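Example: Serine/threonine-protein phosphatase 2A 55 kDa regulatory subunit B.
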Amino acid sequence: MNPTTRQPLEWKFSQVFGERSSDDEIQDADRISTVEFDKSGDYVAVGDRGGRIVIFETKDGKNTADQHYSRNQLEQLDYVSLNHPEYRYKTEFQSHEPEFDYLKSLEIEEKINKLKWCTSLSGSLFILSTNDKTIKLWKVKDRKVKKAREIDSPLQLLSSENTLLSERSFMNEQGIPSFANGNHVESGANSIFPSQEPRSKIANYEDTAYARCRRVYAPAHDFNINSLSNNSDGETFISADDLRINLWNLEVSNQSFNIIDMKPSNMEELTGNDESTEFSRLSLHFVVRGEVITSAEFHPIHCNLLAYSSSRGFIRLVDMRQSALCDYSARIFQDEECHGSRSFLTEIVASITDIKFPVDGRHILSRDYMNLKLWDMHMDSSPVATFKIHEHLRPKLCDLYNNDSIFDKFECCLSGDGLHFATGSYSNLLRIFFHGGGSDEGATIEASKDPNRLAASFLSLISSGLITEKHSLVKQ
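Written out as structure tokens, the predicted fold is:
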């Protein structure tokens, strides 16, 4: 793309819906918890901590040149679109409500953890949503709604016109005969059709969207659900918690198959049996003695392959054709350089918090606390590229451990062409990298209402050690 014609990136930062002033108090239930685009980029679903889902769609742009190319083609063309993508409101609905598990005396909050778009059928949209325990399938369909609006009656319009003519006749030709009540002949129409005549109604049809819950899947997880992933076959999906991965059929809500089970026979092996140890204050996600599942993703092309990451920094690729219970991995991806000499703190930051496949399925993108890594499916000994995110915080790991910031989780995403990667950092910072660009520095953007501010000044404060307290670290 020609640098002289490239338009600057425009970003809009939002943690809640609607325009808010600085004085408005933001409720926790209004905060956005997850965002998911569909494959075409025409729709985006947003979930919040209040259990609501809002769906947006791109504005109609059929007359623009962009409509003649797919999203991937536009990313590869030497062409600058004159129209920035804009989304308009489509519909919203309440997906989850707060619940209480009486058997375990556990409150289940309504916060939407994950959203996943399914294959569209017959013009309808399908989307999976989940909170900590319950998965639901929603169908969003457009329909025409008949709406009536009031208009002036044609007889009333005739009446008012005759009244105007009568006034002109009174001014110009006062000799015209009139009724006994003083009205001219023309104005008699006004008495025949009084103004109290009911207003006429006309019906028109407007397109609107409504959502309906198609499936509520049976509870199948003892721990909080951290991942949802649709299979390329369009029929199945997986859900994962800390210790198990279940395989579901979209049309069967009361049965799932446990394909990966990492739960030890003795749970004390995972959490430690000494309550006085420092492990007792760590959540299940971040224990070091055992290993827990942190993310799971289906391969975008091969329906028999799936990958999942763990708290020990491993990515396991499994083939579901080998056995019903996928205990053995077809391939284990691990950075041998990082698994050399390790300490307690380095083992914690090695935990992989998110993995993603690009659309071609050739690579795997992973995110841990310190780095963003790109793996080749045919090379499991080391990543092909490592992008440093928090290297400036390495001398401060002890401080980060003391205020629990070291356990923060970050996600990652890829562009449609699979060449650009993005991930979050602290203080509203967004890091963007380009694979094959010759530099691993990337770009840093501050996600704020003033997105053009330089973020390098804040990075210098972090690297100098002036900002170490947890309350000054805002994770995005």
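The mean pLDDT is 77.
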